[in-house]
User: Fold these one by one.
Assistant:
Number 1:
Amino acid sequence: MSKFLLILFSFFMVGCNANETLIDPLKPELDTMYFDVVQKKLSIEQDLPDQVNILVAKWFDEKVKINGFDGDMTFTVTDYKQDITQIIDGKRVDISLSFKLRLRKPLLSKIKLIEGEVSSYGTLSGDFSLSEFDTVIQNTQSDLISRLSRDLVSKI
């Protein structure tokens, strides 16, 4: 009887371990950029999901550098959209983010405005858990911020 319980318990443990998430969270690859200004400011015009808010703030604090003697820059997140749709045998998440970057140099009477939009998507099909789909959403959000960083570097 004890062997039977041991075998039953072993199958139960293997079954529990089989349900672990197979999708690894991504860490965004962010480019460092430098601006010839004295001050920088981040402005977010709407509520963002917590993960996106953290990623944008971390990117801005750690990768957006200033090294000037005059002027200021304001980076504004103007629009965030996240749509989840059903696809054949799965789900898809589409995420987009619009932004404005304003560089102001008062001594030169110069203002430069850069506007843009970045988007990313992720899909999951087959049998999956809600936590696996949550990981796909987080990975798509991380990819979105990586794309934002690359796009902005290419525009400055």
Note: The first helix runs from residue 2 to 18.
Number 2:
Amino acid sequence: MVGNINIYFGKVVNVSDESKICRCQISIDGLTDDIPVNDLPWYFPWYGLNYLPAVNDMVSVLVFDGNYSTCFYGRKVGLVDLNLDAGDYENYLEIFKRTIDKKNVSLTYLKSKGIQFLNDKTGVQIEIDKVSLFVDTNHIIMTKDRIDISTETEANILGDKGVKQLHDMIKHQANTITEMMKLFNVISAACVTPFTLPIKTALTPLVPVSQSKLNAENKKIDTSADTIQSKKVYIG
């Protein structure tokens, strides 16, 4: 038989278990709080070896037959302070929650927010139909139909298709330059009267120079078009 069981509340004062099996030293007000920390017994978790509170957490302590040397501790007390609504309270899961080097670190589950892993200003939130990643003010939100990067979003150009379209536009521009120069040559050739000869005189040396210059600029743009294609970020 288990015998007589009493439940008290105590403050966790040490979690540095050399055996690393989630044992804690806990001070129970009015019962063991006069005992130096180093002399306090080590209590095992009632929930098995997968739960470890933090120093200064308040936890329940199960004492059997008044024996304070071999007790078990329960989960941290303080769920009321989280102001959870009914649905979140019933399904709340706190796997890990600490303040480390003045930075808040936690791994929790809320029905309204899903699984949340927070590491100061960095975090991951996994909901039923959405995954969110963020670092400070930068974030990525992924759903079934779209991916949003940053807070102000707009439709993004597809990489390979965007580059191909750009090359096609530059090729069209090159063809336009060629056709324009042909037109100027035709106009120049038609200028045979005394009234139009000045036009021919002006166009004849200008056309090849302009064509060479425009083709060179166009070729430079075409060559640089590939540089806008990322080698590390891929979208679909």
Note: The two ends are 64 Å apart (CA to CA).
